[in-house]
Design goal:
Chains A, B: It is found in: Cytoplasm. Chains A, B: It is an enzyme of class 3 (hydrolase). Chains A, B: InterPro entries: Metallo-B-lactamas, RibonucZ/Hydroxyglut_hydro, RMMBL, RNase_J, RNase_J_2, RNase_J_b_CASP, RNase_J_bac, RNase_J_C. Chains A, B: This is Ribonuclease J. The structure is a homodimer. Chain A is of the alpha/beta class. Chain A folds into three domains: 19-216 and 378-459, 4-Layer Sandwich (Metallo-beta-lactamase, Chain A), CATH 3.60.15; 221-368, Metallo-hydrolase/oxidoreductase (Rossmann fold, 3-Layer(aba) Sandwich), CATH 3.40.50; 477-557, Roll (Ubiquitin-like (UB roll)), CATH 3.10.20.580. The first copy, chain A, has 15 helices and 26 strands. In chain A, the strands form five sheets. Chain A has an eight-stranded mixed β-sheet. A seven-stranded mixed β-sheet of chain A has the order 8-9-10-11-12-18-19. In chain A, a hairpin with a 2-residue loop joins strand 10 and strand 11. Residues 1-11 of chain A have low confidence and may be disordered.
């Protein structure tokens, strides 16, 4: 299925092409990581994680396969990080610790979050060579990669794309972006650099496809803030607001709103506190009043308090879920409170969020959430924004990235409708080796790529076979038959997740199993065959009696 | 938690109140069934099923608990059906077969679908007393219930609400509805009857809350048809269209469009064929050209064929899924084909539908779906439609129904904004006994209500304990330790869904288990205690070594 990537010559001066090798984030939304190779130099971008889909049961998180990087570890000259979201940095503790020590460049907030993460994983300070490079800086990686960061607005500060100048030409990678015309810090996306590069000639554009199916322009953070201000102004009692903990600008806006409306802010939930702390450390969160703890709000009136809490995705252990289900240790919601969800459910979380919202209604609190209230905005640009970048960059070649096939293909189609469409667009997959030269743009091979499952302490010890077993177990449970052969054959039956305790059924199963065993012994069959006989007999009986196919485990004790 | 419902006097003439007892569909969307009791007469409406949520693993479907009806079976005088959707009739084979034989009234298509369903379940013809009553008819149930059906537009033909005239006053139940101003058959919702009842005085309105959070007016079926016509006209090759099989009017529109565009229609998929057949039997599907089978289209050109197929919800065995994943026995999609999803994913099906759409893009077919194409419309009315019904009915009391708490409560709030708001609104739950009199409207008790799980052939033999086991099994798998005590103690370990085969880990677990067993035997502990020791030791070891908590099953063979 995969084969070694390159027959690339060692003599760099003669190398007419570069390779773009997405190891994650291409054909999916999640676990972004991209390698660029020129001659015997490799530069890597990001190292994210993905969250499991519903059939990936029990998996905590998913990181990209990095066999290619491990096999070519000696060629890696440096690493750059575009921003601090989990799908771009969440895999780094697993990845960087398996890599040689090379400079890892990132902006202050991004590095602050990476440091926090490495600390949690017990990686020693200094083991990773983190180098601060703000979103307007320029760094050189190896001898062939010149990286000029570009500030791009997104749903986290310090977000960057970059212009990569290489021996074969210029590549623009937008990173995750929207074109917010009213960002909280007043710092717009640096379209000037993209336009300038476009004039000089861009060989390849790699651009964010997340919202390629959405017409128009994504909502600005400022409009969200204005709507939040109106909603909060209408709340008579306590306010509980949730959003993505990483959305520092949104949280800054809410802190400002609270100040203007004479409410003191309480931060609740581990990740909310962690992001706020890191953001404060790098100077991205200004507090007109210090945060209070829940214990300190006792003297305040209800309309003087605003809680910012975790739980925008209905996570069972989050603050909002515990509030909704009435099992928070210190706080109980009551009629007169307001809950504001400044967020949308991420695909897969709809059911959990819906459950929380319904519980909040049942308690009798007022609940505000989109779309009835326009209090959330995507961090990714819609079609107009994508078109603007394509029009400015005027790339010769185009690689729609950060999207599933539906998003990539609609992004490609959008590009074709513009006045100066790219000469060629590729819909690439993870592991594709995309060869890029002044007149060359094609997939020339593949390297291993895919998902490594993290479950508990195990990294990669769960494969699709184990997941299939979990799916089977989840559907009909497990039924274990233990046959003891001596002195007199007997069978015990134990089940979990199969059916409510039912002595009759158990007895029947035991009888069917025992008959099979006795027949087998009488016919002096081999023990494996006796076990298979028991398995087959019980399987047929259970299917007929119950219409079910539990996972059957036959055990023989000789 | 529950207590017998009523201290209702036997002497009916003196009875000042009626009871409305929702047994399903109140506080949820699904498994609709409502009982009305007046004195010693009960009338029942519908008998639906619900589909499991993601944590209800392996469950095929859910039917309502009907203990109350079973306990009061002798009082049931009749049954009415509002329409043929699964959430209104899907539970009937389980329910009606446990009930005394009483007249069950429904419109032709509804009864046709019920008959089909009873047949599948092996219920003998005539065992259930099905009585045809069209959506403009009037029937008497017992001596106290006068039911006047009202035609209401919805996403299936023959859909009805009803005006129930009782000794305590008039009740209007909308049933599922939208106010489609351009229905396929030209037959509008019969608002005249609602208006007339409103003038005479409506004591209680029970109304569909599904879209109570959506502003405006739901899209009409005619607009969907116009947009489908445009999309299909633009397709150069074969067209594969999917929608809900029960949406007979939509399918009629597509058949008409195909005829106008000189395409022959092929129906693919069991449920598509079933609904089409029943609809034809009752005269609700007119075929300008007979359907072709896939074998008969060989002679036609690509642009002369339109397939109507199952799979709008991404169901794994549906025609569209098999086409998308390339495992349909007879048909292979190819570039140039078009696939049209005239549907939205029902909550819970988003992931499956997304997967199918992405696969279709990968194949290279053109894919059309909402919201980019306005080719689906909800069957339920939005706020303007709900307001219209409230304004016409002008009920004294109001019971928002067919919705989760968020929908019920927003429906209640909407009612309060109208010129003549109801005097009182209740947010009821399944099992609530709502006492209704000329001046009385309150919950006076509860009866058992809730979910009965159907899994394979088992009805009700799976409870929440079994489901919790299934969730545990799905998360970390199962690990079975079999300790054989004689002559020399030994332990075998088997696991499923826990981790990839790992001899080292298995050996360590075996060693830990064996130590616990040997210690226990040495200390001459009781066998249960030895088993618990083994369980505890392995649990601690596994948690520490892997960070996981599989379901552990310790077995001792003495």
């Amino acid at each position: 299925m995969t084969h070694p990537a390159t027959d690339q010559p060692k003599d760099q001066s003669a190398t007419p092409f570069l390779e773009v090798i997405p190891l994650g984030g291409m054909g999916e939304i999640g676990k972004n990581i991209t390698a660029y190779r020129y001659g015997d130099e490799i530069m890597v971008v990001d190292g994210g994680l993905a969250f499991p889909e519903s059939h990936q049961m029990g998996i905590d998180l998913i990181i990209p396969r990095i066999d290619y990087l491990q096999q070519n570890a000696g060629l890696i000259k440096g690493w750059i990080l575009t921003h601090g979201h989990e799908d771009h940095i969440g895999g780094l503790p697993y990845i960087l610790t398996r890599m040689p020590r090379v400079p890892v460049y990132g902006a202050p907030l991004t590095l602050g979050l990476v440091r926090e993460k490495l600390l949690e994983f017990g990686v020693k300070d200094g083991e990773i060579d983190l180098q601060e490079a703000d979103v307007e800086s320029r760094v050189k990686i190896g001898t062939h990669f010149d990286v000029q960061f570009i500030r791009m607005t997104h749903s986290i500060p310090d977000n960057a794309g970059y212009i990569l100048t290489t021996p074969v030409g210029k590549i623009i990678h937008t990173g995750d972006f929207k074109l917010d015309e009213e960002p909280r810090d007043g710092k717009l996306s640096d379209l000037g650099k993209i336009e300038q590069a476009g004039k000089e000639g861009v060989l390849l554009l790699i651009s964010d496809s997340t919202n390629a199916e959405r017409p128009g322009h994504s909502v600005s953070e400022a409009e969200v803030a204005r709507n939040l201000e109106t909603v909060i102004a209408g709340c008579k009692g306590r306010v509980f607001m949730t959003t993505f903990a990483s959305n520092v600008n949104r949280i800054q806006n809410v802190i400002d709103i609270a100040h203007r409306q004479s409410r003191r802010v309480v931060m609740e939930g581990r990740s909310m506190l962690k992001y706020a702390q890191v953001a404060q450390q790098v100077g991205y969160l200004e507090l007109p009043d210090p945060f209070l703890t829940n214990d300190e709000v006792g003297g305040l009136q209800d309309q003087q308090v605003l809680y910012v809490c975790t739980g925008s995705q209905g996570q069972p252990m989050s603050v909002l879920s515990r509030l909704a289900f009435g099992n928070h240790a210190k706080i109980a919601l009551r009629r007169g409170d307001s809950v504001i969800l400044s967020s949308n459910p991420i695909p897969g979380n709809e059911e959990a969020v819906n459950l929380v919202i319904n519980r909040l209604y049942e308690i009798g609190v007022d609940v505000y959430y989109p779309p009835a209230y326009r209090i959330h905005a995507s961090g990714h640009g819609s079609q107009e924004e994508l078109a603007t970048v394509l029009n400015l960059a005027r790339p010769k070649f185009f690689l729609p990235w950060h999207g599933e096939p539906r998003h990539q293909i609609n992004h490609a189609r959008l590009a074709q409708t513009l006045p100066r469409p790219p000469k060629r667009t590729l819909i690439a997959k993870n592991g594709d080796v995309v060869r890029l030269g002044p007149d060359e743009f094609k997939v020339t091979g593949t390297v291993p790529a895919g998902a490594v499952y993290v479950d508990g302490l195990g990294v990669g010890d769960i494969g699709d076979d184990v997941l299939l077993d979990r799916v089977s177990l989840s559907q009909e449970g497990v039924l274990i038959m233990t046959a003891v052969l001596h002195p007199t054959p007997s069978v015990e039956v134990v089940s979990r997740g199969f059916a409510r305790a039912n002595r009759d059924l158990d007895n029947q199963i035991r009888k069917v199993a025992l008959e099979a065993v006795e027949n087998g012994l009488r016919e002096k069959r081999r023990l494996e065959d006796v076990r298979d006989d028991m398995y087959g007999a019980v399987r047929r009986f259970v299917r007929k009696a119950t219409g079910r196919n539990p996972v059957l485990i036959p055990l023989l004790v000789d």
